[in-house]
Each structure stands twice: as C-alpha cells, then as structure tokens.
Amino acid sequence: MLNATKKIAACALVLCATNVFSQNMTTDPLKNVAQLSASGSVDVQQDLLSISLVTSRDGGDAATVQNQLREALESALNQARQAASPSLMEVRTGNFSLYPRYSKEGRINGWQGSTELVLEGKDFSRITGTAGKIQSLSMGSVSFALSREQRGKVEGEAQAQAIESFRAKAGQISKSFGFSSYTLREVSVNTNDSSPQPRPRMMAMSAKSEMADAPVPVQAGKSTVIVNISGSVQMLP
Predict the structure, then answer these.
(1) 93, β-bridge pairs
(2) pLDDT by residue (tens digit) across 55-76?
(3) What is the model's pLDDT at position 208?
(4) Measured between alpha carbons, how far is 108 from 101 in angstroms, rounded to an integer?
(5) Is 91 helix (H, G, I), strand (E, B) or coil?
(6) Which of 55, 125, 146, 162 fits 229 for a cystine, CB–CB 3.0-4.6 Å?
(7) Span 177-209, pLDDT tens digits
(8) pLDDT value of residue 217
(9) Rg (CA), the chain
(10) pTM of the entire predicted model
C-alpha cells in the first residue's frame, strides 16, 4: 500500500512539473524575431486559348425550344469533334438552360433557352479555324490563360527570385538591428498569376459575323506568374 502511495505521489510531481514547463513555454514572449515577406515574378506568353460558342432560342413550347437547342448543339459538336485532338483542341459542352417567360399577369407565355460549346487548347489555328466554320452557334467569348506546363516552366524561376529576395531582406534586417546572422523559423509560399482582362463579348461576336467560315482573329497576351513568400526569422547575435 505504501509503494502504491509513493508511485501516485511521484506521478503527481511529474505532472505538476510538466504543467509548469508548458506554462512557461507558452507565456514566454518571442524575442528577436522578425516578420517579413518577399516576391518574385516572371512574365510568360499565354499558350491556352478558350473560345465559347453560344446560341439562344425562344418559343411558345418548351419541347420545341429544347429540340432546337439540341439540334444546334449536336451540329456544332459533330463539326468540332472532327478537329478535336488531345491538348491541341479539347471540345466540351458548357451551359444548357431552359426557363419560362412570364406575362405581366404572371402566367407562362413562352420559353427561352440557351446552349454553349467550348473549344479549348494550345493549337490556336485549329481552334479559331473550327470556330469560324461552325454556323449553328455564334461567338460568345474569347479568353487566354496559361497551361499547366507553361506555368511549371516559369514557376521555379519566380520562386527562386522570391527566395533570394527573402534571404537578402532577412540579412539586411538582422544587420540593421545589430545582429550578425539569422535562422529561419517558418515560411509560407504562395503562387498566383495575373493577366489582362478577356476581350469584351461584343468584339468577339462581331468578328464571327464578319468572317463567317474563316478563322476568328485572336491575339494572346502575357501573364505574370507571381510567387509570394512570407515568414519569420530568428535574429542571432
């Protein structure tokens, strides 16, 4: 019985010491720690083109409007699939909607609907040429972006710039406060890209109407891949 009592007392002593140690660890303020951030950026040519082709129908019967939309979409799909190729030009359907039109009295007096086909890929000539041949749908929008491969090529370069800038800032800040060196405590790395706004819809539609059966004129721009690094360093004497 005495041994059991001694064991319980020993456990309580260890637990008490652990609690005191934990409290000291959490209450002690951080000293000589600097928070900072840095970034690196690289401009890169956009290599991914996306063209949206759309059409809308209006009628008194829902089934009729739906069939008209389906026929227009199927015709466009049949043409687009002939030129489709992995990564060069992917074909996918977009939004398909059908909704009632109401009179002033709140009664249904007709139906409206729309459908969309999207051509996307790296082969600009193939995509614009196919879009120009499709007559059952009209041009909806044109947009550019970076492919995963293109982004990967420059992301490492932007990250290296950000790291070098972070290290330089950490060294300068440490010396400015009278310290000789520093160690890294924690760091966070985030990547994003910025690019010009896509062309207005009306510009794309006018290009389609004026150049039926001809490639749609497009011009890609550049995106800026940005890597941001933020974190803290422990300044050392």
Answers:
(1) 117
(2) 999 999 999 999 999 999 999 9
(3) 47
(4) 6
(5) strand
(6) 162
(7) 999 999 999 999 999 877 655 444 434 444 444
(8) 82
(9) 31
(10) 0.71
Q: Which two structure tokens, joined as six digits, stand for 234?
A: 């422990």
Q: Supply 107's token pair.
A: 């009664």
- What is the pLDDT, as a whole number, of residue 212? 55
For the beta carbon of residue 70, count every other beta carbon within 10 angstroms: 14
Indicate the DSSP class of residue 199.
P
pLDDT band at 218 (very low <50, low <70, confident <90, very high): confident
Task: Return the SS3 of 193.
Answer: strand
Tokens 């949206």 sit at which residue?
Answer: 52
Kindly give, in sequence order, each residue whose CB lies less than 8 Å from that of residue 185, ignoring residues fewer than 6 positions away.
33, 231, 232, 233, 234
Beta-ladder partners of 42: 225
| Residue 170 contacts residue 36 (beta carbons within 8 Å) | yes
Q: Are 228 and 162 in contact (CB under 8 A)?
A: yes
Handedness of CA 125, 127, 128, 129 (dihedral sign): positive
Handedness of CA 182, 183, 185, 188 (dihedral sign): positive
> Which are the contacts of 144, defined by CB distance < 8 A and separation ≥ 6?
46, 48, 49, 50, 195, 198, 218, 220, 221
Residues with Cβ < 8 Å from 29, sequence gap 6 or more?
none
* Residues linked to residue 141 through DSSP beta bridges, in sequence order: 52
